[in-house]
Amino acid sequence: MVTLPAPDTPEVSALRAAYFVSDSTGVTAETLGNALLANFPGIRFLKRTIPFVATDTEARSVAASIENDATAGRAPLLFITVKRAGLRSILSASKATVIDLLAGHLTELERALGTTASEQLGQFHGLGDTERYFARMRAVEYAIEHDDGQSARALDQADVVIIAPSRCGKTPTTMYLALQHGLRVANYPLTDDDFPSEGLPRAVAKYRERCFGLTTTPLRLSQVRHERRPSSRYSSLEQCTLELRRAEDLYRRNRVPFLNSSTKSVEEMSAVIMQTMKLRA
Amino acid sequence: MVTLPAPDTPEVSALRAAYFVSDSTGVTAETLGNALLANFPGIRFLKRTIPFVATDTEARSVAASIENDATAGRAPLLFITVKRAGLRSILSASKATVIDLLAGHLTELERALGTTASEQLGQFHGLGDTERYFARMRAVEYAIEHDDGQSARALDQADVVIIAPSRCGKTPTTMYLALQHGLRVANYPLTDDDFPSEGLPRAVAKYRERCFGLTTTPLRLSQVRHERRPSSRYSSLEQCTLELRRAEDLYRRNRVPFLNSSTKSVEEMSAVIMQTMKLRA
Q1: Which residues are recorded as binding ADP (chains A, B) (predicted)?
Q2: How far apart are CA B229 and CA B222, in angstroms?
Q3: Which of A47, A147, A281 minimises the CB distance to B144?
Q4: How close B129 gets to chain A, by Cα (Å)?
Q5: A239 and A144 in one domain?
Q6: What is the domain count for chain A?
Q7: Where are the beta strands (DSSP E) in chain B?
Q8: Are residues B142 and B240 in the same domain?
């Protein structure tokens, strides 16, 4: 996750293999495994995700690959989310340090809940609760239909309307909120036309309480716009400074909460937006 | 996250509170916490995610909320990804069963790696590796630009081209691959016009080796299309059956791998696509 010198430079001490192995999609193993490894920025990891490991043969093939890494001196780490005990023991017998992300916690939970875990494979990243799943898929459609102010239809159904000048991060944030959280998110670009007025643009004014603004730094905005239209007025530092100042004024005047996207990831922005707009249980 | 009956209905035996508490976005706590709880389908959970818990005061306020749930008989579970030991001990002193998703594994990793975890907050869901982050954001843009066959520009840069008849799940799968994995994914709708020919549609024929097909069941397709255009030829079971049969023939004739989206989530489809197209390390 960290930018590192080339592998053969002498200051790099250790290259470690890290396997994320799952009997399902591998999303959980990858997410938690990466979160854990992020705490060791001084070490380089050669990462490999292997999803859908369901048979003894597949588990043995993973173990063989681990063996190769061990022989090559990359002392493998193995993060697993595998439910069947038989598969876990094949994997655990490999020459890796095994970090079992489920088994220990499942035992804690069985004790706390006074019941045993279901024998079925954990299906959290499967269709699972189909109603919730299809709500997420419909939210993606809604987001695409309402991207960049494209459609004013059914704007009253939006959970949030993200407003910002062009290239401040509206679209990825919108998609993340839709795809991960099933929220209906519209986004609307603020342009020069919107600024003579004191109020919000006509298309979104009715939904002021659902509006959330984004801003960024003029330099960052200018860089991003430059990628799209080099050396244009649109990407000039002067124009970017002006648009951002006007947008922030607009947010303040209309009491629209906003945040700066230049130092925040879509995951962080989404978490802040959900918290601010009270979109979580 | 789950649709629940009203809390006072008598058939609900146990309602347990489940907290996902994080010093960062809460993505890791939510992902793993939910994966664990999915193993106990017989129990209803009242879930609450609390991100950005950074101060003693905030931790105490979470503890107070947990106390309320405990008093109300909802015997809380508390999943935490919190790095500061001071905050962890405030939370752990609450009346919850604490499932610490990081601390134990970090100790295992410190031992295996022979070094201590960085004192900084884990930033996996922050900007982190900015190069990888911006690649993901550009992939989202690319996906939107190339959604539904909209643009043939830069199709040669696609990592995958998803092809399928309308409403088989191309768009959400495309967005997931872009947003989570930073892959450049174009998608192209197969229409009646594409079927007289033996080969792939002209726009994508050059990229046959990067094509991946989707199919579904006629009944499911008809239901989904019905939501968009009720009682039309487009949504008729006859038309859906015909289009899917022709699409599957097209995939087979052109040796395009494909899968059925009716029983798979976007996470599962994405994992299969990455594995089939060798888009993982």
Answers
A1: 164-171
A2: 10
A3: A147
A4: 5
A5: yes
A6: 2
A7: 15-22, 44-50, 77-81, 97-100, 160-165, 185-190, 211-215, 258-260
A8: yes
B169: left (phi over 0), alpha (psi -120 to 50) or beta: left
Predicted confidence (pLDDT) per residue in A48-71, tens digit = 999 999 999 999 999 999 999 999
- For chain A positions 148-187, those within 8 Å of chain B (CB to CB) are 169, 171-172, 175-176, 179
Asked whether the beta carbons of A18 and A46 are under 8 A apart, the reply is: yes
CB atoms within 10 A of CB B177: 26
**Residue A12 neighbours by CB under 8 Å, 6+ apart:** A4, A5, A44
Give the torsion sign (CA, B256, B260, B264, B266): positive
Task: Print burial letters for B124-138: b (CB count within 10 Å at least 16), e (below 16).
Answer: bbbbbbeeebeebbe
Question: Among residues B261, B258, B250, B251, which one has the least CA distance to residue B276?
Answer: B258
* Distance, CA of B137 to CA of A186 (rounded, Å): 18
pLDDT at B3: 46
Q: Which domain does A56 fall in, by range?
A: 15-113
- How far apart, in whole angstroms, are the C-alpha atoms of residue A170 and residue A147? 9
Please report residues of B whose CB lies closer than 8 A to that of A48.
280-281
Q: What is the mean pLDDT of residues B249-258?
A: 96
**B125 in any annotated domain:** no
Q: Is residue B6 part of a domain?
A: no
Residues A241 and A139 in one domain: yes
Q: Specify the length of chain B in residues.
A: 281
Q: Does B263 touch chain A (CB under 8 A)?
A: yes
Q: Which two tokens stand for residue B125?
A: 């869901």
Same domain, B76 and B168: no
Please indicate, yes or no, if residue A8 is contained in any of the structural domains. no
The string of pLDDT tens digits covering residues A134-183 is 889 999 999 998 888 777 777 889 999 999 999 999 999 999 999 999 99
Touching check for B41 and chain A: CB below 8 Å?
yes
Q: Which residues pair with B47 in a beta bridge?
A: B18
Residue B23 and residue B54: Cα distance in Å, rounded? 5
Please tell me which of the candidates B123, B267, B272 has its beta carbon nearest to residue A27. B267
Tokens of A74: 């990359």
**Distance in angstroms (rounded) separating the CA atoms of residues A19 and A74:** 11
Nearest C-alpha neighbor of B14 from the set B66, B69, B67, B73: B73
CATH (domain of A22): 3.40.50
Q: Which of residues 227-246 of A touch B (CB under 8 A)?
A: none
Q: Is A264 labelled as part of a ligand binding site?
A: no
| Pair (A198, A271) in one structural domain | yes
Best residue of B105, B183, B224 to probe chain A, by most A CBs closer than 10 Å: B105
